[in-house]
Amino acid sequence: MSIIIMIIVGFIVGLIARAVMPGDQNMGIIMTTILGIVGSVVAGFLGQSLGWYAPGEPAGWIGSVVGAIVVLFVVGLIAKKRA
């Protein structure tokens, strides 16, 4: 059941990050979900490194969205460099 919740939350976080980040992100539902999940992982890792979260504590909604925006920004830089 936790995997289904992770997928749903990842999708919602990915949608919010894509709405906040300016520009055109051509992503489907699956890539949006992966973006949200990776953003949550990035936020959790950075939060634990900075001492904001205890080990094993998940990142919050705002942290997950910020993490997803960071991932979108990095992907945008890499895509721009390739083109």
Automatic annotation (TrEMBL):
Gene Ontology CC: plasma membrane
Signal peptide (residue range): none
Membrane spanning stretches: 6-21, 28-47, 59-79
Broad class of the protein's primary localization: membrane
InterPro entries reported for this sequence: Transgly_assoc (IPR007341)
Keywords linked to the UniProt accession: Cell membrane, Membrane, Transmembrane, Transmembrane helix
Pfam family membership, one: Transgly_assoc
Compartments reported by the entry: Cell membrane
Membrane topology: Multi-pass membrane protein
Similarity field: Belongs to the UPF0410 family.
UniProt-recorded name of the protein: Uncharacterized protein
Provenance organism: Achromobacter agilis
Lineage start: Bacteria, Pseudomonadati, Pseudomonadota, Betaproteobacteria, Burkholderiales
